[in-house]
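Record type: monomer structure entry
Structure origin: computed from sequence
Chain ID: A
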Amino acid sequence: MDPALAIRLRGVVKRYGSITAVDGLDLDVPEGTCVGLLGPNGAGKSTTMRLLTAQAIADEGELEVLGFRLPGESKPARAQCGVVPQLDNLDVTLTVAQNLRVFTHLYRVGRAERRGAIQRALELANLVDRRDTRVDKLSGGMRRRLLIARALVHRPRLVLLDEPTVGLDPQVRQELWALIDALRAEGTTILMSTHYIEEAERLADTVLIMAKGSAVAAGPPAELIAEHAGREAVEVYGRPERLAEVEAAAGAASLRTRRTGTSISVLGVEGADGAAPQGERRPTNLEDVFVLLTGQEIA
């Protein structure tokens, strides 16, 4: 394995009966970077996470995490990983600090180092003043921060975040983004699956867009936008017949389009000259790329 890669997947396939959840997936996660898995429901993001933690076993392909081959060497690989699950599985009968202490034992943090490890995790997650609060008294955002703190208590080399901000309001999501940014600044490698396009565009160095278990595009967000959507779009609003006319004219001019409710976006109009329709100009974004490549809106 390339020593510069924290994760390396080649031709990975996972089937559940007649359903192929992951279909020939290739994935590279360089050390010290944040890579985002972006895709609609059923794209294979959570299954990929389960494969990387050996909660599921691939039917075909090669998986390597931190230099260890899975599933045979999953135990030493997991010892150096922090995992933040999509579903909250905290012990609600314990306090914040007690939850962290349990995991210092599970990850075999040395007795002399446990107090400092817990304090560092509390500080990272901004939960110092809640250390003696029972988990069932915490808000949803605090519980999500505690899940991340728990994953960090043993100073992992790699953190796996499965939908880290699902179900949270925008303000709390921004707080968690700041926490993930702090991890990146420390050089921690992060693989994050997400439904939220703005989350991937904001946090990830590289994005892998998945659909139906396969990768359909990969690269830095800015490069994906430039490649698939150009720099500028024109948003046209109107009745269905007007939008159909705009769509047909754009197609005749070899311009890509995407529908959004009662409007249509014509993409890559910066070089279209007179072929661009009249409408509201805006920069293109990763959502344009997502819809073009998957044909679906984010759930």
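Annotation 1: The first helix runs from residue 45 to 52.
Annotation 2: The radius of gyration is 22 Å.
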